[in-house]
Amino acid sequence: MFSKLISWFFGGLLLIVGILNIVFGNDADFGVFLMLLALLYFPPVTNYIKKQFGFPLPAWIKIVLAIFSIWANLAVGAIAEGFLF
After folding, report:
1. Per-residue confidence (pLDDT) for residue 27, from 0 to 100
2. Please, which residues have CB within 8 angstroms of residue 43's CB and are 6 or more apart in sequence?
3. In terms of Cα–Cα distance, which of 16, 23, 56 is closest to 38?
């Protein structure tokens, strides 16, 4: 249950940051990429992937993608340009 809450929270946060990159950032493609990446964190999408391919998306892949997305946002995203704070 706690992991699903974390997944919903991080997926929503990544979706918001993707929208910020599209609207305020200088790279709309990066914003679309972040929005698509955010879909991997929502439990209904993860359940769909599990049903279609027969195996779930491992938690370590989600953690690595989360670290990568945080690092990328702090380096080149809208957060780095000061639009969120």
Report:
1. 76
2. 4, 7, 8
3. 16
